[in-house]
Amino acid sequence: MATIRYTVPGLERGDAEQVVELLQNRLHALNDLQLTLKHVHWNVVGPNFIAVHEMLDPQVDSVRAMVDDAAERIATLGGSPDGTPGALVRDRTWDDYSIGRDEAIAHLGALDLVYTGVITDHRTQIGKLETLDPVTQDMLIAQAGQLEQFQWFVRAHLESSDGSLRSQSSDTETGAADAVR
After folding, report:
1. Per-residue pLDDT tens for 107-132?
2. Which of 71, 77, 96, 158 satisfies CB 3.0 to 4.6 Å to 81 for a cystine?
3. Would 27 be classed as within a structural domain?
4. pLDDT digits 0-9 by tens, 32-43
5. Which residues contact 161 (CB under 8 A, 6 or more apart)?
6. Would 63 be classed as within a structural domain?
């Protein structure tokens, strides 16, 4: 990562560099999430097709706005956001989404795990930002709230009447998809 030459008033350059690095990871995660959501939107089939297909577009739009917010915050702090596909693939620490054309419920089981990963990482970064940069922390808190609501929408399809999630014991996307079929 290049050293930044300036940042916002009241934030030391070294701290801004840490925040930019943290935000670049979130930028990659959110870019990946919006692409994954659109992939599911295009590849969902079955009896719940239209409900899931139409549920996902507003999520895609909201996550795209989060991507823009993260990139613009990086620039505001004096960094240079890298939103190229090559950078995303090079820098990510997670695997590509593993489900192709499949039933709505299978995709929702897999998406639950995707959301868990993104939200968990957002919350970890929120904790790191407590004293480092509360402005960026507020942005991630708002994003996490939206992401948690989107996961709730997904989980409502997976929840049994006793409150358990059919995909709860799965730790892979394909495992979660299989568990809910």
Report:
1. 999 999 999 999 999 999 999 999 99
2. 71
3. yes
4. 999 999 999 999
5. none
6. yes
